[in-house]
Amino acid sequence: MSLISSVKYVLYSKKRHVVFAAITLAALILPWITVGGRHFFLLSFDKKQLQLLFTAFDMQELYLVPFLLIILFLGIFFITTLGGRVWCGWSCPQTIFRYVYRDILQTKVFGIYKSVENKQNMQSGKWLQRVLAFLIFAALSVVAASDFLWYFIPPEDFFVYIQDPAEHKIVLVALGVFSLFIIALPALLKEKFCVYVCPYVRIQSAMFDDDTVQTIYNSKLGGVIYDEHGKKLRDKGEGRDEACTGCEACVKICPAHIDIRAGMQLECINCLECSDACTKVMRKLKKPPLISWTSPNAILKNEKVKFVRFRTVAYVVVLSIVLCALVIVGSKREHMLLNINRGTQLFSVSNDKGGIENAYTFLFQNTDSKGHKYYFEVLNKDISIVLPKEPFNLSAGASLKKIVVLRSDIGSSLSENEGKPLSVKVRAYAQDDEENIFVEKEIMFFYPKASDIHK
Which domains does the chain have, with CATH numbers? Predict the structure, then answer.
């Protein structure tokens, strides 16, 4: 088999567009999917609740958030070490917005650019088409901004809120701000966002090594076009075996307006459009493509990319540990929560009942998936419950405030606790599952001085 017949001509554009479509559909559909009234992901400041994987967590259970953030950042580091800026070229919202605005609306629909193969120059004139393209994208930006807000305000609430703008100004302001930001990304900032605004581009180089997959021009095949300082030496390969024809198809199609033949650059987002352009030219010439998705070591040593190495294995191990910790901690979540706040008055003397009374506000929250009947007990023999007298029901996910009054008999307790607070243990529980659903809290019970009682 000849060398040419064994060459694989891989095109990435259609694969990227499929990924774009999948990400867009997932982002639009997920907020609408609920299981038992819970969303796949929802961080609701209004309801003070985090919903993750169709499980609801109260704000007091946000100790899970650090685990999620650690997984997010470790995942980004792992993907960058393994595949370079694959996120930027294949998944970043800015890249998707830019593709929709420039390649679809401006080029294919209105013909403002001559073709998707040349992204460097717009045709002069066509002002009406430019305005129409901008207005259509502005409308799409409102949809995208709404979709973003649905992960913080569920759709069932969002559409109710926007019907009453006077009462929900913050929602409308947020929608307007995010819409303008999305419009500005591809229409005004364009590729400058990736270079000057996005923080990811600034830290990616620290995570690269010689085995990181990147978009690389193979100077062994094409010839040296730029020197090590980025100065252009020639337009095409000069040697007999140097295949670069100088057609600059890779330069014309580049959305970041760079020449990949100059080597790895900050602006490159690994979209691989230059690779596709070069592959189409080289296939006609029956030669191997000069630009490919590979690693510097793979080019230098003429071998396959080494994905399994110390750094990638280390990231996988750490990610696995953090993920296991998240699962373990999440599985031990409490089925009820109890917050206790004191009243404004430390104590009161009930002469007719012969005791010292302290008032509290108990906030009961049912974080279980079904309703229960709740009550509580005081685990101190000298303290009794004045209010409430009866248990109460709470449906799944509901919360309820109860005014609680506790009393201590003067004769049995004042002599040893005069003027000093007493630590009291309270045990709240679900009457139908007391062994598994309960919370224990310690509160302070305050006593007056004997002289205050006489007064």
Answer: 13-206 (no CATH), 210-301 (no CATH), 336-454 (2.60.40.10)
